[in-house]
Amino acid sequence: MSGYDLSRFAINQITTPKWSMPQAIEGYVSQGIPGIAVWRNFLDDHGVEATARHLRDAGMWVASLCTSAWVNETDPARLRAAIDTNKRILDQAAAIGAPCVVMVVGGLPAGSKDLGAQRARIHDALVELAPYARSVGVKLGLEPLHPMYCGDRSAMNLITECNDTIDALGDEATSLVADVYHCWWDPAFERELRRAGPKRIQTFHYCDWLVPTRNLRDRGMVGDGVIDLPRIRGWLDDIGYDGPFELELFSEIDWWERDPAETVRIAIERCGPLVAPRK
């Protein structure tokens, strides 16, 4: 074992996409990692009941379920279908013990340049989903995505915006999913983490920003980039955050090509000092 206290550490499944759900569960546990952030494609492949049973048997806790269905449809019937899909995803999260669904809500609809309309569409969808989230005991995990994703993946891009939405919809239905990759550059990052406080932050994502970044799925392993991760961990300690830390690593030309067991081993070495509980 690593010698680090990994009790707050989870691997996000997108970090090891070569592994199926059973392989990921067993692979993480075998190296002493007790937490997992589940991705829906792996969940669907293995089945919700089988996954829930496997997680219980392995003694693993779930940090989050990734990700929501996009709500970037201009056709009312298709938008309604997307909202209904998100309700089913919330049900899945409840079944596997995930405290939140990470909301990746879609960028501009096909053929549209109306960013304001899409942001209004996102807000309205969250307003509608919030009561359902409360009813099943799973929060809408609002994750601001880096602005480079605004055109396609998500038009919810600022941590300030996410905190404002949580203020409006309430802590019982919504929470903050903060990711260093998406927020490290933002002058408001520290201020908004402090504004959120320890209870609003549902889970916290680690990785690193490479220079140069070669494509949109070229994140760095912790320690390989330019983000001052110890300083950010210090902010979280200052506000008393005691929730999960996830490694979420999109890396199609590097880490995704490696043996997942090697990736997990190196992740423990790099993340260990940044995930240990406060002393």
Provide structural commentary:
By secondary structure, this protein is an alpha/beta fold. The protein has a single domain, classed as TIM Barrel (Alpha-Beta Barrel). It has helices at 21-30, 40-46, 48-58, 76-96, 115-136, 159-169, 180-183, 189-200, 229-239, 260-275, and strands spanning 9-12, 35-39, 61-66, 100-103, 139-142, 174-179, 201-206, 245-247. It has an eight-stranded parallel beta barrel, surrounded by seven helices. Helix 1 (21-30) runs parallel beside helix 3 (48-58). The protein is globular, with a radius of gyration of 18 Å.
What are the main properties of this structure?
single chain, globular, 14% strand, 45% helix, 8-stranded parallel barrel, TIM Barrel, 279 residues, 10 helices, alpha/beta, 8 strands
Strand content: 5-15%
Structural class: alpha/beta
- Indicate the multimeric state: single chain
- Mean pLDDT equals 97
Distance between the termini: 21 Å
CATH topology value = TIM Barrel
Question: What is the CA-based Rg, rounded?
Answer: 18 Å
Largest sheet: 8 strands, parallel, barrel
Gross geometry: globular
Tally of separate domains: 1
**Tally of strands:** 8
Write out the strand line-up for the largest beta sheet, numbering strands in chain order. 1-2-3-4-5-6-7-8
Q: Superfamily at the CATH H level?
A: Divalent-metal-dependent TIM barrel enzymes
InterPro entries: IolE/XylAMocC-like (IPR050312), Xyl_isomerase-like_sf (IPR036237), Xyl_isomerase-like_TIM-brl (IPR013022)
Protein name: Xylose isomerase
GO molecular function, one term: isomerase activity
Keywords: Isomerase
